[in-house]
Amino acid sequence: MARSGRDSDRRLKTAKKRKASSQRWLERQLNDPYVKRAKDEDYRSRAAFKLTELDDRFGLVKGARRVVDLGIAPGGWAQVVRRRAPKAAIVGIDILETEPIEGVEILQMDFMDDAAPDTLISALGGAPDLVLSDMAANTVGHKQTDHLRTMALVEAAAWFAVEVLEPRGAFVAKGFAGGTDKDLLDLLKRHFASVKHAKPPASRKGSSEWYVVAQGFKGREPSRYGDEA
To answer: Model-level pTM?
Structure first.
């Protein structure tokens, strides 16, 4: 049965003081099936489905014993890990305040703080076998600058992973297309048996984000964070 335009394209009346960009964002949220699914399945954000789709494809979460979630706010990825690996120890970190999640320890601090890596490993109680990073820098509106700022976070997360992961562990991080990422890929290819790019269906078509999935960790770098291998 054909649906009317009113049913298929939910729109908002533009408030007098609402910016056009805010209007577009609100309309996109209302028309986004992943937003509805997140509410129906009690996930804190639609981003949870990006991890579920990556996990369905690559088998990342099942069997994980210790997991680090970098950029945990608002908590959707940690919720996925909690449901799919209920016995895993999970520690997340974010500069933003994050509402508590049962079974997850959350640190409110900047991952780029020199004390953050030690604090994460101490809270986790040992080396992780899965490091997740959904971190992205706050945008300034200049595409190249925004890309470089976010990729600096991705590279920091990757170095953290190769210094603390258990053998055969995995690393997943969000990045954005554009610029030069050769150093990051070279680092991952040296230390992981498999390095792939993926764009899960839950990632919006118009978004330039992609995910790097590195699996089969070969061995740690000499660690700056203690617990040297």
So the answer is: 0.81
